[in-house]
């Protein structure tokens, strides 16, 4: 009745931005990401506790944070088809910075896999991905390592909306992602609210959906060929288009800070000098630089010279895995 899982976060190369169903977390378009190591979240779940208890990153979870965890475990109970009793959950991340990279994707992926294992359900990446998705959309892409594609699906119940691994972490072990923290503050508008604004008010939203869907198979092909330059260009284009969609929302939403722009523009100079480095940007000010092993030190130096206060160098990460040591 107790299981512990470690999962890595992921960074989308083709972003998910907007839901067609908010309750089930079903996206308007497919997306594609790379799982990142070494950063990770570890989560222990035990059913049969005295009462429901949720501790996340050293504090007792309350309100909507607690509800999201307990709702996911309710879905595990339904899958198990029996009364598992109250649950105790403890989760800890080793994310070195506050808001650089969201820990929720790794957290919900670890919770989904640990929840199923604690309930005695067999290992099943598809079922775990669907469960993780119901905690946070991007979490469905952290159940497996390497390059994962979240297929939007067509069904209303979401049973065909989950992530599949296209290439494992070993496929392109030379690839590097360098997270550049230019701003440690909490983001003002969470992804969940930002994408809702885009869906409801951006006149560019329909174009975004069509374009992102078409970019996924192109990205897959470039990853198969390990074409860093073309993948870097695709990533930048997709990030700009996601952000443009939200810039055109009402009220407009801009996640970029002056430091973000300074760093992004400097990358063009680097490329002119022959340094292969591109960026992607989630719903916040901190760019993630895409480069190769030979240039990760240069990429870090460029980020710091452009004002990054912290830098985390990442490599392709593996699957969410069961651990034998528990957190309690
Ligand atoms: C910009 O998965 O955090 O990082 O489904 O509402 O929990 P919810 O949102 P979340 O959004 C991630 C948005 C993104 C792009 C991406 O990861 O694909």
UniProtKB/TrEMBL annotation:
Top-level lineage group: Bacteria
Keywords from the named record: ATP-binding, Lipid biosynthesis, Lipid metabolism, Lyase, Nucleotide-binding
E.C. designation(s): 4.1.1.33
Pfam families: MDD_C (PF18376), MVD-like_N (PF22700)
Cellular-component GO terms for this entry: cytosol
A Gene Ontology BP annotation from the UniProt entry: isopentenyl diphosphate biosynthetic process, mevalonate pathway
First-tier enzyme category under EC: lyase
Annotated Diphosphomevalonate decarboxylase-like N-terminal domain residues: 7-163
Family (UniProt): Belongs to the diphosphomevalonate decarboxylase family.
Protein name stated in the entry: diphosphomevalonate decarboxylase
Species whose genome carries this gene: Corallococcus terminator
Gene: mvaD
């Amino acid at each position: 009745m107790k299981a512990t899982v470690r999962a890595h976060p992921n960074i989308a190369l083709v972003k998910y931005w907007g839901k067609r169903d908010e309750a089930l977390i079903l996206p308007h378009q497919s997306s594609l990401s790379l799982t990142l190591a070494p950063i990770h979240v570890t989560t222990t779940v035990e059913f049969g506790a005295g009462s429901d208890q949720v501790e996340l990153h050293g504090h007792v979870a309350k309100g909507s944070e607690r509800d999201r965890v307990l709702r996911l475990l309710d879905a595990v109970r339904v899958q198990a088809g029996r009364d598992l009793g109250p649950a105790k959950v403890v989760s800890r991340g080793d994310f070195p910075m506050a808001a650089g990279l969201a820990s929720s994707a790794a957290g919900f992926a670890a919770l989904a896999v640990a929840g199923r294992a604690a309930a005695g359900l067999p290992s099943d990446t598809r079922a775990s991905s669907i469960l993780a998705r119901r905690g946070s959309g991007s979490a469905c892409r952290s159940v497996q390592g390497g390059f994962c594609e979240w297929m939007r699906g067509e069904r209303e119940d979401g049973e065909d909306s989950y992530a599949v691994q296209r290439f494992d972490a070993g496929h392109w072990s030379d690839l590097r992602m360098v997270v550049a923290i230019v701003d440690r503050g909490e983001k003002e508008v969470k992804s969940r609210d930002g994408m809702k604004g885009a869906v409801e008010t951006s006149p560019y939203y329909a174009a975004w959906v069509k374009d992102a869907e078409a970019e996924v198979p192109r990205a897959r092909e470039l990853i198969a060929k390990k074409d860093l330059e073309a993948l870097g260009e695709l990533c930048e284009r997709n990030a700009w288009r996601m952000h443009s969609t939200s810039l055109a929302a009402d009220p407009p939403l801009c996640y970029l800070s002056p430091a973000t722009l300074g760093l992004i523009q400097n990358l063009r100079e680097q490329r002119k000098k022959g340094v292969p480095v591109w960026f992607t940007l989630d719903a916040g000010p901190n760019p993630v630089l895409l480069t190769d092993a030979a240039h990760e030190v240069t990429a870090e130096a460029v980020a710091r010279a452009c004002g990054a206060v912290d830098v985390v160098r990442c490599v392709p990460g593996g699957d969410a895995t069961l651990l034998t040591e528990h957190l309690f």
